[in-house]
Amino acid sequence: MTTKPYQLETVSCPSCIAKIEGMLKRTEGVAGSQVSFATSKVKVNFDEAKIGSDQIRERIVRLGYAVLGEK
């Protein structure tokens, strides 16, 4: 398992957090996620054998949130 943080553009509402976490919860290979409203970061715990970091990034972007970086 790998844990990676993604820096998003400013997340402006609690429903945005629920939308991102809900999508990640339904994503195969993602074991867990946590979105921080204060820092606009998403920390994702995932299995690299099932899903890659780029695929997670693409899914977040498809929801309408710009990913500014990852570490």
What strand order characterises the main sheet? 2-3-1-4
Mean pLDDT: 93
The secondary structure category is: alpha+beta
Note the beta-strand portion: 25-35%
CATH class: Alpha Beta
Helix content: 25-40%
Number of helices: 2
CATH hierarchy: architecture? 2-Layer Sandwich
Report the end-to-end length measured between terminal Cα atoms. 15 Å
Which tags fit this structure?
71 residues, Alpha-Beta Plaits, 2 helices, 4 strands
Explained architecture:
By secondary structure, this protein is an alpha+beta fold. It is 31% helix and 34% strand. Strands 2-3-1-4 form a 4-stranded antiparallel beta sheet, with helices on one face.
Short characterization:
With 71 residues, the chain is of the alpha+beta class. The chain is 31% helix and 34% strand.
Layout of helices and strands:
Elements: E1 2-8, H1 14-25, E2 30-36, E3 41-46, H2 53-62, E4 67-70
Antiparallel strand pairs: 1-3, 1-4, 2-3
